[in-house]
Structure formats: C-alpha cells, structure tokens
Design brief:
- The structure holds 2 protein chains of 2 kinds.
- In chain A, a hairpin with a 4-residue loop joins β9 and β10.
- Chain A contains 5 helices and 29 strands.
- By secondary structure, chain A is mainly beta.
- The mean pLDDT of chain A is about 90.
- By secondary structure, chain B is mainly beta.
- Helix content of chain B is about 15%, strand content about 60%.
- Chain B contains 1 helix and 11 strands.
- In chain B, strands 1-3-4-5-6-9-10-11 form an 8-stranded antiparallel beta barrel.
- Classes of the chains: A mainly beta, B mainly beta.
Chain lengths: ~375, ~270
C-alpha cells in the first residue's frame, strides 16, 4: 500500500511536471521607467498605470523633449521611445504587449512646479473601469489662466481593488460634491471595504485627499508607504486655511473590528513642509511627522477636530521644528516639498475609525 | 501521513472483518444458502474500500502554469458495493453495476503567470484580475458515483473491467489563496497590485463547481485470498469540474483519480 501510494504520487507528479508548456508571450504593456537626457528633471518621474508625470526645471524647453521609455519585455511603444515631442501640452503614447493582445494608452505630462496655493475643488474628472463596473472622481486644480496644474491624490484606486465601489462615484470614500461652500466641494467618507478588505486586514477606508501620489502597486503590502506625500514647493508656507463640515460615524472600531464605546471619530487636516535631497526625494505617510527632513508642520489641535453641521473656518499655523530653517538657495533650486492631507478619520491610516464619518472641505488655501 | 494512512487501513479492515464475522455468527446458514443460490444464477457481490489518489487538473497543462511546487493527494476514501452478473458457461464475461461513495481531493502549490482570478466576497464584492505568482489550491469533493462496467476474467486470480461512471457531487470545496506575486486588476493592462511579505488573498470557487462528472473507468482486480481482492480502478472525468458559465479560470479542469484498495467478495 505504502509503495503503491508512493509510486502513484511520483508518477502523477512527474506527468504534471513533464507537461509544463513553453512560457506564453508577455500580456502586459507597462512603461517601467522614463528617462530624460541631461539634468532637466526636478524630481523622478512618477509612473502610474496610465499616466507619467515629469517634473522639470523652469529653464527646460518643453517644446522639444524626447523622453526614453523602458517597457515590459517585448512590448512596443508608439510614438517611439526617444521621439522629440512638444510637452507644453500632454502627450499620449500607446504601449502594445509582446503577445499583441493588449494595449494601454498613457498620458505623459510635464509640469514645471506645483505653484498654485488656492484650492477650490471645482474641477473633476473621472476614472472609470467598464470591465469591473466602477468609477470614481479625480479632483484637479487649474492655474489662474485656466490651464491644468495638478491632480489631487487619493486612496480611491486602493478602495476600488476591494470591489466595494460601483458606478456611483459617491460609493467611493473620496468624491466631489455639488454642495460646497462655494460651488463644488470635497466630500470624504469613511467606508467599509467589505469582505475582501476585511480578509486582508484593512476593514475600513477613510476618505482622504492629499498632494502627492498613491502607489497602488504597494498598497496591499504597506498602505502607509504607498501614500507618497509631497509636490515641489517654491515658497515658505505659513498657514493652512479652509472651511469644513463634519459628522462623526456612530461606531468606532479598530482594524481587528473591536468596538470602542467611548471613542468618537475625529477628522484631520495637516500639511508638512520638508527638504529633499538625493536620499529622500519624497516622504511617505509612515514618517510624515517624524522624518528628519521635515522643516515645519501645520496640524489641527484636538479641540479643533470637532463636529460642525455648518461651514466653519480653520486656520492652522505651520510650526517650525526646532533647529530647522529654510535655505533660500535651496528654495530657489526647488529642493523643498509640501503636502496637504485631509481625512475623514484621523486614524484611518491604521484602519481605525467609524464607518459613516463624513468630512466636507472647501476653499482651501496655503498662505505664504 | 503514511502512519496515519496505515492506521486507517488497519481500522477499516478490522471493522469490515468484525462486521462480517458477526453476521456469520447469527445467519451463517441463511446467508450461505443465499450466496450459493446467487452464485448458481451467475451473480456475485463485492464490497470495496480504498483510497483515491490523483488530481483535479487541466489537461494538457495550460501555459499559465509555470511550475508545480508541491502536490499532495490528501486523504480521500471511496467505499463501493457492486453486483456482477456473469454470462455463459465459462463465465469469462460479466456485467457490473456499483454504487460508490467517495471523496476526490488534493492540495497543490503552483507558480502561475497571467492566471485568471476572481474573488467574490460575502457582500457580493468582486475582485477580478490576472494573477502572476503563487497559488495554493485545495480540492475536496464528495460524490455518489454509479459505474457501469464490463468485467473480463483472465484467470482465477486476475480480472479486468472497463466501462463508464457518472458522479453526483454532494459537497464540493475548491478554494485556496494567492501569495508572493501581483494582480493586474481586471485584465493585464489594469492596475498592478503586489502581494508580498506574507500578504495573501483568499479565493473560493466552490459555488462554481458542476454537480455532475462523468467519464470512462477501468480497473483490475487480483484475488489475493478466497474472499479478498486487491484492486485498482482509474476514473477519468471528461467534463469540466466547473459550471459552463464559469469563465474566471480560462481552462477546463478534469478529475483524474486512481482508486487503490481491497474488495471483499461474498
């Protein structure tokens, strides 16, 4: 019996192993890296699934830029890598997979710097996935001339992965609302991530919005590190000002689902200003208040994190960390970053909060 | 595992023999008369017990599967009762019908590339995409099976049989988890999400299993003692274990199992 069992196991195992077929051609169509000649880059290019953001020095000539792309092995790109194009407007590239069955359109944008300081939340575009039947809002800001200036980042792409969102954009934690203080506004809601989110130990998602970018790829492994805070900043910020309305959800839970009867959920708004160098190009949420590169932090006090059913102003001063100062030369050279973070649950980054907590924000301003 | 299996074989054997012994004590006369009568009419009865060893596997293996890192047949048992009707004077040929209660199971750990995956949560949430990385799969299905076979007697000791079986699944489990790799959300151009450092995502396709499985069956029996046969029967499912409208796994999978065991011949 023992021998027969062994024999059959070996025979069956060998049959399967010997049947492993030749590897199929790659089906993916990714831009893996983006290079630009010379030293015109102010930051490393940010490569997202369908978008590449290139931040260049002010003296760069956007009319003739020839970015070079590294792709998924075997994939092809059109226009070809290294073609000189006019990047004063966004350019579009199509990457086709090695097996030719899949292609992906990338938007490649060049920005000089994030120079705007008034955020009105009037502009919205959407990201829709027809196959998985969901869509969510991406808020963006234009400069005073009405030209696109920046996209706000949020965790919506991570929430989408849990399958909890649908075609209704307000089914996502971060969305635009028609009922802003003036015109449209921002609406952040703490939501359940459903069965799947629960199984991977992330049972809630707080609505959040920030300056920086969200790295979906690493969001399951380490959501804090996936939250990259910071855009280039050419001024010294003094105050973060804005208007809010807030209603806390009923039941406060931690990531294990434990209910805390005496804890009321709180909202959060903060901004960080920090120096970059070759080793620290961007700060992620895991060291947002502790990183040695921080210069100043603006943070709500606990007494200000209260509910309000009417629009209420907040004005938070930037407090310089002792021993830190701003170097004018480095400021001119664009070596500083700033990030603003807004959240419907203060401890949402560690998956603690109350489902249903709702924060409205409008007319946000960085005073410098 | 082997020790555990030995113990189970032993205890099953003891149960079988003691059960038969008890019957003999009380109704030996009647039973013997019945068997002799049946035997004269060319009828023969058998009770079988054995282990199912095999796999629920795609054939041939699709290109998505890059490596099978481990395979374990797990403990799957089949218990069968059958009747054989022998034909002619020499009784070389016979027909057999049986009823079998059985499990067919396995666990595997495989490395895949661009493998269709879908996770449906209890709240109906859908997480769908193409997975590149490691997949652990556990299959454990329970069936009521009816084989219909032609039996041929080579000599007094050796018999062979061939025919077909039809199975009804009473309970099914096809589940597992993915780890150490990445999911492309929706299709190969979707958002890439890495699972590493112990992060896993569970999946469960149990609800998508088809209730019916059928296919050819063939086996041999070797008569070790007057009443005891050692037997091996191969069942080869020819329809997909999944329902027709299930398209998450892009290839069909078939249950192919060898049952090895003993038969008591009355």
């Amino acid at each position: 019996m023992k021998f027969a069992h062994l024999l059959v196991c070996i025979a069956f195992g060998m049959t399967l192993v010997s049947c492993i077929r030749d590897e199929a051609l790659n089906a993916e169509a990714d831009i893996v890296s983006c290079k630009l000649p010379g030293d015109i880059l102010k930051r490393d290019p940010i490569i997202e699934n369908t978008k590449v953001t290139i931040t260049v020095n002010p003296e760069a000539n956007l009319k003739h830029l020839a970015p070079e792309f590294e792709l998924t092995p075997g994939a092809t790109i059109s226009p070809a890598s290294g073609t000189a194009l006019d990047f004063s407007l966004p350019q579009y590239y199509t990457v086709t997979s090695e097996d030719k069955n899949w292609s992906k359109k990338y938007e490649v944008v060049c920005i000089m710097s994030g120079s705007i300081t008034n955020y009105h939340f009037e502009n919205v575009k959407s990201y829709a996935n027809a196959l998985l039947k969901y869509s969510y809002d991406i808020l963006f800001e234009n400069d005073e001339n009405g030209n696109w200036s920046m996209d706000w980042a949020s965790g919506n792409a991570g929430f989408a992965l849990t399958g909890s969102g649908n075609m209704d954009k307000s089914s996502f934690p971060t969305s635009s609302t028609a009922e802003g203080k003036e015109g449209k506004g921002l609406k952040l809601v703490t939501m359940s991530t459903g069965d799947f989110g629960n199984k991977v130990g992330m049972p809630i998602a707080a609505g959040n919005l920030f300056l920086g970018w969200f790295d979906v790829a690493s969001s399951m492994v380490n959501p804090l590190k996936a939250t990259r805070l910071g855009v280039p900043c050419s001024y010294v910020p003094l105050y973060l000002k804005g208007y809010y309305k807030y209603k806390a959800g009923d039941v406060y839970k931690d990531s294990a689902g434990k209910i805390y009867d005496n804890v009321k959920d709180k909202w959060d708004a903060y901004a960080i200003f920090y120096e970059t160098d070759d080793s620290v190009k961007i700060i992620d949420a895991s060291t947002r208040f502790t990183n040695s590169h921080l210069i100043s932090i603006a943070r709500l006090s606990d007494s200000e994190r209260v509910e309000s059913s009417e629009w209420k102003e907040f004005n938070i001063p930037f407090v310089t960390i002792s021993g830190k100062s701003v170097d004018e030369e480095k400021l001119k050279a664009g070596k500083y970053n700033i990030s603003i973070v807004l959240s419907s649950s203060m401890d949402g980054d560690t998956f603690k909060g109350a489902i249903g907590s709702t924060l409205y924000i409008d007319e946000l301003e960085l005073i410098h | 595992m082997n020790l555990r299996m030995k113990k189970i074989v032993l205890s099953m054997g003891i149960c079988l023999l003691s059960g038969l012994g008890t019957t003999n004590l009380f109704a030996q006369q009647d039973q013997n008369a019945g068997i002799i009568k049946s035997s004269l009419a060319g009828l023969e009865y058998e009770v079988k017990a054995g282990f199912n060893i095999g796999g629920t596997a795609p054939l041939p293996l699709p290109a998505e599967i890059r490596n099978i890192k481990s395979y374990n047949p797990s403990l799957s048992i089949g218990i069968e009762g059958n009747i054989t009707k022998w034909f002619g004077l020499d009784r070389k040929w016979g027909g057999r019908i049986a009823v079998r209660l059985e499990n067919k199971g396995m666990t595997t750990d495989a490395r895949v590339k661009n493998y269709g995956m879908e996770i449906i949560g209890d709240g109906g949430e859908r997480v769908k995409g193409n997975w590149t990385g490691d997949v652990k799969t556990k299959v454990k299905n329970s069936y009521i099976t009816v084989p219909v076979l032609i039996v041929y007697r080579f000599n007094n000791r050796l018999r062979g049989n061939i025919g077909a079986f039809a199975s009804y699944m009473t309970e099914g489990d096809f589940s597992g988890h993915v780890y150490d790799g990445y999911l492309r959300e929706g299709d190969p151009t979707g958002n890439k999400v890495i699972f590493a450092d112990g992060k896993t995502a569970p999946y469960d396709f149990s609800k998508d299993l088809s209730r019916f499985v059928w296919g050819p069956e063939a086996g041999i029996e070797w008569r070790a003692f007057k009443h005891l046969n050692v037997c091996g029967d191969l069942t080869w499912g020819v329809n997909d274990v999944f329902k027709k409208d299930f398209d998450t796994i892009t290839f069909s999978m078939f249950p192919i199992y060898l049952n090895i065991g003993f038969a008591y011949l009355f």
